[in-house]
């Protein structure tokens, strides 16, 4: 049994478990057995997890429906987070971060989740085509109506975090209280500016992909090839013939040795590394099976000393993504056509 630690979610006054249950793998994208998915959710709650993260787009709403069924009778014990932005139909307006869509989609999420409020409603990705005050204005109304408790962003750059905070202050709107970025032993880019920026603004941080899409759970070898549609779409992250991914394979071998020497599994090392950063509130774990949940929960009890962290820094430098494609921000280079604008 894990002795779960709870941490303040930014400066909201809310306490959340340092592991957050991500539910992207429940439904058509992963585990299609609803009863089994519900058992996994209940096992996480029984282990002390009180933070659950989903999104409207996960399995086209099915994940939210599964979460809703799992939380019947337990809703008050859980800090429930979901997201909006991704396309939810063919209609060009059934997506994005406009007032029109947010006010419609929050009702859809509430219905699927079987609840009357969302604790944390997050903008899933930045949207350069929509004024941020348009989005914050709609979200402010939802908070005032009691349908949403707090609002957050996901995969924002440091500049986008600052602009949203400044706009909220300038327009006297609700501000984003959390940011949800990708973070792992192999993907450390956010250490450079996203984490310090979020810290300065008192934001809670819930990170995703602590196992780097399976790279840190032993799923990938030199002979692997991307098979699932999602991984084929992200071939740059998984194509073993690319030099950037060769570097990741070498790093994983070295990190496995660090884990061995520390007496923990690579999965435990990976998740413990993420929640060890002082800016990180909670690491989102995304199990598809009960076995995966069981392999991830013990990370909550793992403490990494300075010597282990120093060895990790020698393998993957702080603030660096080993493969520039391993980011949700786009590769950090400027297209030639844009450099003179």
Provide an overview of this structure:
By secondary structure, the chain is of the alpha/beta class. Helix content is 38%, strand content 13%. The chain has 12 helices and 10 strands. The longest helix has 20 residues, at 243-262.
The tally of helices reads 12
**Mean pLDDT value:** 94
| Shape estimate | globular
Structural class comes to: alpha/beta
Most strands sheet: 8 strands, parallel, barrel
Which stretches of 5+ consecutive residues score pLDDT under 50?
none
Give, in spatial order, the strands making up the sheet with the most strands: 3-4-5-6-7-8-9-10
Give helix and strand order, one letter per element, not per position.
EEEHEHEHEHEHEHEHHHHEHH
- Count of DSSP E strands? 10
Radius of gyration: 19 Å
Oligomer: single chain
Query: Helix fraction?
Result: 25-40%
CA distance, first residue to last residue: 57 Å
Gist?
This protein has helices spanning 34-46, 62-70, 99-113, 132-145, 158-171, 194-200, 229-233, 235-238, 243-262, 266-276, 290-296, 306-315; strands at 6-8, 15-17, 19-22, 51-53, 79-84, 118-123, 148-154, 176-180, 204-207, 282-285.
Salient structural properties:
341 residues; 8-stranded parallel barrel; globular; 12 helices; two-stranded antiparallel ribbon
Please give the structural blueprint.
Blueprint: E1 6-8, E2 15-17, E3 19-22, H1 34-46, E4 51-53, H2 62-70, E5 79-84, H3 99-113, E6 118-123, H4 132-145, E7 148-154, H5 158-171, E8 176-180, H6 194-200, E9 204-207, H7 229-233, H8 235-238, H9 243-262, H10 266-276, E10 282-285, H11 290-296, H12 306-315
Parallel strand pairs: 3-4, 3-10, 4-5, 5-6, 6-7, 7-8, 8-9, 9-10
Antiparallel strand pairs: 1-2
Helix pairs in contact: 1-2, 2-3, 3-4, 5-6, 9-12
